[in-house]
Structure formats: C-alpha cells, structure tokens
Amino acid sequence: MKKKNSKALYYPLALNLRNKLVLVIGGGRVAEKKIEKLLEAKARIKVISPDITPKLRRLFIKGSINWVPRVIRSTDLHSAAIVIAATSDSCVNKLASQWSRQQGILVNVVDDASMSDFISPAVFRKKKAVIAVYTNGQDPVLSRDLKNFLKEHWDVFLSYRNKL
After folding, report:
1. Which stretches within the chain are classed as H helix?
2. How far apart are CA 63 and CA 60, in angstroms?
3. Distance (Å, rounded) from C-alpha 60 to C-alpha 157?
C-alpha cells in the first residue's frame, strides 16, 4: 500500500501582476524584498503594517506603494489579487491566511508553506531568461543557493550553449 505524501506539490506558474492589487502584510526587511520584486512586476502594492522600513517609507512618500499604518483587518483583503503575509507575528500571519482563503484569494505566508497557497521561487533575470528555482517549499536556503550558483555560472552556460 502506497503511503500518501502529505507535503504540497506546487504547480510552477508565472503571474502577470501588472496593475493588479497585491496586499503585503508587514513592513520589515522581508516585506521590503517582496515589494521590490512586486514593483518590478508593475503590481499595485498596498502595505498594511503599523511601521515600515525607511526604504518602504521612501517608496510610500514617492507614491510607489500605498501604506496603511495599522494592523490588518479582514476587509483589507477586498479586491486583492494575492496576499503576502510577511510579518514576524505568527498570529497575524495565520489570520491573513485564514481570511484570504475564506475570501478565495491566493495567499503566501513567507515563513510557513503550510499556510500558503503559493510559494515564491528564488529568481534571477538575465537578458531574455527568467530562472526560477524552488524546492517545493522544503528548503528555501537550497533554492537561494542554487539560484546563486546558476547566476554565477550563467555566462559559462551560454558560452557552452553557443558552441553547440
């Protein structure tokens, strides 16, 4: 008898978030990194957090992101395409996950794949290529290290490929 695998198997997907509202819960360094990538994807970003990093504050002042300086409410999720919970408070992250799922919104809790509908791969872009690496949510450090290895050896790969 086969034993059921209880770990999620993720379907790789690339999302077009241009002009779509992405709700980011949390204003620390992890949220900042996520927001940088979301800005590259041209998403509209709403941050809910009592406080934010100086860099996020500059983005807010510049008008690049919207910031609501308070704790999250379930009504904050309305019209969000996706939700990213990036706080250090597991209770807030759990609420964000529950509310998102109740409202049919895909959610990522950055440090807990079990509360997430999707995970973010380690990504780098080189000219026409976008390379995404993930370990099915099991080993983010390995994903990051593999991405960095590929990034460092990208030119060698291209030179070999061009010789074929």
Report:
1. 29-40, 54-62, 90-102, 140-152, 154-163
2. 5
3. 40
**Is 125 exposed, middle or buried, given 0-12, 13-18 or 19+ CB atoms closer than 10 A?**
exposed
Counted residue by residue, the chain has a size of: 164
State the Cα–Cα distance between residues 27 and 55, nearest whole angstrom: 10
Q: Are residues 23 and 48 in contact, defined by beta-carbon separation less than 8 angstroms?
A: yes
pTM over 0.70: yes
Find where tokens 């609501």 sit. 68
The pLDDT tens digits of the residues spanning 29-38 come to 999 999 999 9
Distance from C-alpha of 4 to C-alpha of 7, rounded to nearest angstrom = 9
The domain spans of the chain are 21-115, 122-163
CATH 3.40.50.720 fits 21-115, yes or no: yes
Residues 6 or more apart whose Cβ sits within 8 Å of residue 17? 38, 41, 42, 43, 81, 82
- The dihedrals phi and psi of 48, each to the nearest 5 degrees, come to -115, 115
